[in-house]
Write a structure and sequence with these properties.
The chain is α+β, with helices and mostly antiparallel strands. The protein is built from 7 helices and 8 strands, in the order βααααβββββααββα. Helix content is 46%, strand content 19%.
């Protein structure tokens, strides 16, 4: 069994094929929920179990928040802004997944993959994650100088993307259309954190499998 990641470049995010690839498996956008180990984890278990049992994507998936809709609208401009201001090539990818020990999968949907080099090093791939933030919150963050690190609520997703892809670096761009500034923070693999995350996702996967088996009896 290979544990190399699988990259789906020809799948458009938000398409029927994309939803099918994600159906019933834990994905990076919910890794923080898994790590929190609270009621949200249980709800996520039920959601994915329902997708596995019915073969259909959960109806809850099709109820995006205002922030999610804003992100979709501004993502293309944010990606172009990143590529232009950093003189880097970006490549869109629909989905990336990695086999777990069980043979099932966990996955992520990076906003882009980038080619980057540091200090004369050979070019390597990295992950780009894009977040939009309301202008008032961006102003407050800049005034308080709280824009130089990955926000705690995004760490699990960013490190999860590095785990799934196997890459070493991720860039997090915070952006809003028309704002005269944006925030860009780089993060590198934290192997201890990624190991903890992998163990938590493996345990979640085992609980999911057990739940599905119980529901089938």
């Amino acid at each position: 069994m290979t544990n190399d990641p699988e990259f789906f470049y020809d799948v458009q995010q938000g398409s029927e094929q994309w939803f099918e690839l994600r159906r019933g498996i834990p994905t990076a956008s919910e890794f923080q929920t898994i790590l929190a180990n609270g009621k949200g984890r249980q709800s996520y278990l039920y959601k994915l179990a329902g997708e596995i049992l019915t073969g259909k994507v959960s109806e809850a998936t099709f109820k995006p928040s205002l922030a999610m809709e804003r992100g979709k609208t501004m993502e293309a401009e944010a990606r172009d802004h990143y590529a232009r201001t950093n003189f880097l090539d970006v490549q869109q990818v629909g989905f990336v997944r990695r086999k777990l020990k069980s043979g099932r999968y966990a996955g992520c949907s990076p906003d882009s993959l980038i080619d980057t080099a540091e200090g004369g090093a050979a070019t390597e791939r990295a992950v780009l994650e894009i977040k939009t933030m309301r202008p008032d919150l961006m102003i407050a963050a800049r005034e308080a100088k709280k824009h130089t690190e990955i926000p705690s609520e995004h760490v699990a997703q960013v490190m999860g993307s590095l785990w799934i892809t196997g890459y070493r670096r991720a860039d997090l761009l915070t952006f809003y259309e028309g704002m005269p500034f944006s925030f860009l923070v780089s993060a590198f693999r934290d192997e201890a954190y990624i190991k903890e995350l992998e163990q938590a996702v493996e345990a979640f996967d085992a609980d999911l499998d057990a739940l599905v088996r119980r529901m089938k009896k």
